[in-house]
Amino acid sequence: MRAFKACFCLKKVRQKPGYEDPIILASETPFTVNEVEALHDLFKKLSSTIIDDGLIHKEEFQLALFQNSSKRNLFADRVFDLFDVKCNGVITFGEFVRSLSIFHPNAPESDKIAFLFRLYDLRQTGYIESEELKEMVFALLSESNLDLSDDVVESIVEKTMMEADMKGDGKIDEEEWREFVKKNPSIIRNMTLPYLKELTLAFPSFVLNSEVPD
After folding, report:
1. CA–CA separation, 113 vs 123, rounded Å?
2. pTM here?
3. 213 contacts 152 by C-beta, under 8 angstroms
4. What is the pLDDT of residues 58-117, one digit of tens each?
5. In which element (H, E) is residue 13 found?
6. What's the CA gap between 80 and 118, in Å, rounded?
7. Nearest of 123, 55, 96, 94 to residue 203 by alpha carbon
8. Helical residues (DSSP H) of 121-195, grouped into ranges
9. b/e per residue, 82-117, with b = 16+ CB within 10 A?
10. Which domains does the chain have, with CATH numbers?
11. CA gap 71, 35 in Å, rounded
């Protein structure tokens, strides 16, 4: 009996930092236990590409997205920052699962809209300003290999601000953003991945294929 307990304890000790019980994570997210376990397999691959410490570092996140750990992109950086809930420069397994749960078909639409709002709110002021929107549009276009002139981008930003900024104060608050997305549902189209298999295979692409407001 003592040998059994010792073995059991050793197995628990071997779990890497940030690991959380799949049963607990499944109870807190739309994922099933089997889906959480499958996500753990994906997480283990991503978190061991550069530093095998059970945590996803920004370089590993970039490597998963671009096959290049040194390439930087504002959009991808923002996604990493939102996944890194504790703001300590790494993504734990629990943070990974809870963040990805937003892309589950059963996740509330309000959560998806809120996630995108925080993504575009670069300065974390609680508002999306035209300059932030412009920066994000350029980042999305860059990774989509689309080359639009500054005038066209300005037109996209102006049109978006004109439609979304209902209060006319030069910025978009959360309430205005919700109304804007409801009128333009294509903006959150890539916020839902219907199958776990698609989620695990398409993890790099959901970041890079988001819609540009038009």
Report:
1. 18
2. 0.81
3. no
4. 999 988 877 666 667 788 889 999 999 999 999 999 999 999 999 999 999 999 999 999
5. helix 2-14
6. 12
7. 96
8. 130-143, 150-164, 174-183
9. bbbeeeeebbbbbbbbbbbbbbbeebeeeebbebbb
10. 19-102 (1.10.238.10), 108-192 (1.10.238.10)
11. 30
Within 10 A of 201 (CB to CB), how many other CB atoms are there?
Answer: 12
Give the DSSP letter string of 192-209.
--S-HHHHHHHHHHHHHT
Q: What are phi and psi of 128, to 5 degrees?
A: -105, 120
- Give the bridge partners for 171, in sequence order: 129
Tokens of 77: 């950086």
> CA dihedral in degrees (98, 104, 106, 107; nearest 10)?
50
SS3 call for 124: coil
**Three-class DSSP category at 50:** coil
